[in-house]
Amino acid sequence: MSPDLLSGLAWTDPAWMSRAACTDATQDASTDEAAVAICRQCQVVEPCLSFALSRDETDGVWGGLTPDDRRLLKSLGGLDPHTR
Ligand code: SF4
Hints:
single chain, mainly alpha, about 40% helix, disordered N terminus, binds iron/sulfur cluster
């Protein structure tokens, strides 16, 4: 298996998802603001945001960013500081 394929599989590994703060059903994530507040307490913000960006997720809050935030981040070159 090539390293490229392995890195691609890393994003399909649900291990980080099992540590997601948003899986706590007692928290209110009914608005983007409420969802972003939950993300601020989450320990897997970075893989979550990378996952959403890699899949061009257009709905919901991922990695503490709304869809508009993610579009802006992508327009600025994404998470890679070398593209900014
Ligand atoms: S960063 Fe936010 S959306 Fe992503 S797993 Fe954590 S709480 Fe859920």
